[in-house]
Sequence to fold (304 residues):
Amino acid sequence: MSVLHIPFAEGEANLDWLELTRALTDGHTLPKAEIGDTLLYRDPDTLLSRAAWIDGLGMAVKTATVFPGNPNRGQPMINGAVCLYGDGDGTLSALIDFHLVTKWKTAGDSLLGALRLADPGSREVLIVGAGTVGRSLCEAFGAGFPQARIRIWNRTLSKAQALAETLEGVGVAEDLAEAVTRADIVVSATMSTEPVIKGEWLRPGQHLNLIGAYRPDMREADDTALRRSRIFVDSFDTTIGHIGEIQIPLDDGTISRSDLVADFYDLEAFVRRADEITLFKNGGGAHLDLMTSRYILDKWQAVS
Fold:
């Protein structure tokens, strides 16, 4: 039996952001995922493999090669693929484009958090960061909150302007403090190691959604933001002990473990209160890659 290969453009043509959030919701009703990461190095290059197994959904291994010298040779820095295996027999079901899975997993993860925790009548969404993920977030949150105006802020204004020009109906914010204050939903996807979002700018009823910090030394929101918020994460296993956004304030006593209300395995606890600030930390994880890959394959097969 030949193995399906799902490339980026053809695979993406079948996808829908709200359908994906429903697939992620369903995935979290199954037995808890087993996950494992492997990192191999040959300075300055890296091989990263992230594996997940969910009983009833199958297995996925997402492999990425990171070669910093590739752009000088006219090649992408990051390459890779996701191998998706069947739950019943363990055979290879599909080989899916790495960038397709990563894009939809990352933005879909945050969108699910926002759909649960943000005001469904939100009128303004602020995207902080104008990189590749920022573009995906404009698409995802535009689908999830179609009535809302989306604006982009970036440390380099020209990059925000360049991205906004390629997206219909998306504007640019020049002053971050002012933009955060007026937004109903603030979504941050930067590479910052120092907080860019200050808690003093936030107001009750807002939703803060953090994506960018993925290393132990990275943070996007300051201590005040965490102290003022009810905090949720996508996975306790991939955030606690791994990501500075959560672990640094835990270590220094700014927050305690009991301040982390719930993760996606307890979605019923994701409840918005109009008089409070909600904060969602997107930590990612191979189990989310598996859920997203299965959704991509199901959609591919439905139209084939």
Notes: The domain at 116-283 is CATH 3.40.50.720 (Rossmann fold). The first strand starts at residue 4 and ends at 6.
